[in-house]
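Sanity check

After download, print the first record. It should look like this:
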Amino acid sequence: MHTARKNDICPLCHGRGIIIIDKDRAAPCNCMLHRKIQVKFKKARISQEMLKCSFGQFKTRYYSKNLKDSVNGKTYFEIASMTLSGVREFVKDVLENPSADGLLITGPVGSGKTFLACAAANALIDNGLEVLFVVVPDLLDQIRASYDTSSPDTEHDLMDTARSVAVLILDDLGAHNYTDWAKNKLYTIINYRLNNRLPTLITSNLDLNDLEQYLGQRTTSRIIQMCKFYRLLVETDIRMLMRRERDTHV
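Expected structure tokens:
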């Protein structure tokens, strides 16, 4: 049985799991479906720290106004501002259209990709949407673990949820050692979502050329087809900068 922490209690149903429509009718709250997904994907829950992520907390001051992208000539600050607007627009589009385009956010480690992905997830969940947020290596590990006869999960259930959930967020589609098995699972999920026009947000520390090297051409081509593309750039890992600020104020 799921026991909600105090700060996780749904503001719509207040933890009851149902919403009263009138004196004779009640309906399941959307939070119940989200809880079922999180129970099925044991490592899918957004961490307590990431539950605090919101667009208003995204600090563009960490991005240089002097350093420029050698490709488009825009400053890191300008790129971060554009990416923030793009992710906000993604949330708006998904709320208005269940078949909205997806989003791919790339950039080095510590550039704010996961923060923005969590902010998007939180905004969508707050608006009652069904969202599955998974770190790619954890997703693959859990599918692999389902082959154990003692596992309460089945590969079919896990794959079906990842394929068909209203909004899928794949965090850290990075430079891992993808076996042919792993590549095939990711292709199956991404291809299904493309064909069924289901919004997907992906973060990766790889650029498009590297994605093709690690995932293969057919998966990368589908990501390009289904997603708008943004790339964050930073001079220093933002987590290090934030740590220095905290240490300074101690």
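If your output differs, re-run the checksum step. Summary of this record's structure: The CA atoms of residues 46 and 133 lie 7 Å apart.
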